[in-house]
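User: Before I run my own analysis I want an independent prediction to cross-check against. Here's the chain; please return only the structure tokens and, at the end, one sentence I can use as a sanity check.
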Amino acid sequence: MSVKLPVSPIQHVKRVWEKIAPLALADHSWDNVGIMIESPVPNQQHKQVLLTIDLTTAVCNEALALPSCSVVVSYHPPIFRGLKSMTLSDPLQASLLKLAARGISVFSPHTSLDATPKGINTWLVEPFKPYASSSLPIVPSEGAEVEGAGMGKIVQLKEKLSVSQIVSMVKQHLSLEFVQLSVPDEERPIESIAVCAGSGGSMFKGVKADLLFTGEMSHHEVLAAKAAGTAVILANHTNTERPYLTKVLQGWLQKELNDAEEGAEGNWEVVVSQTDADPLRTV
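Assistant: Structure tokens:
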């Protein structure tokens, strides 16, 4: 009779993640997704997962202080390009080394979570759904066996909205007091909205929409949009991503971890970082 070996916490998270946002959906032409670092000393009894947008020193310390953290899911990959060394002199590398030594592994989903049908971009367009005739990916995922998957969203409205109405919707949805706005014509009604979590400048190239909504764009990208008669709403990069962790991903991931066969014992807990924050603030 074969003996079923226990699955390490990071491998359990990786398997479950395929039900949420298959890594095949990520833009592998430039992105880095999956296991960033796998601890050689995992504790099978530790079933806490910490969600964060960025793996900062503060988030690392938060994970180390948790009683049974085994995995940090960092939306942005802390390892993006090839490393020639891993030393304590670099704050990010030091965080990875400290976590691994404590039995904590790091997993990054990034653009797989952007492209999945119930991902960040789908959540970003929720305020517009009552007014929408269609909501489709800007760039549909090719070859992926997931219906509706793709990067960005283009929303066609069946009911015209004013820029001020859309600004109010965005602020309420993201719980923000301020956003940045570029409007070539205050009176022009909006019939289409292009949406991209994070940095949408490259995603919007060639896209025809009355309004672009993203976290950040370059100065010249905004100027070009305005010259073309297109309005722009910028909310700051991670402000378009961070609320999703609490409002959608936390409960979803926890349920999948506990429902999966490898998590039969249950008791998995997913928590959202309290120290993760946008590095910029409006003063």
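Sanity check: Residues 242-259 form the longest helix (18 residues).
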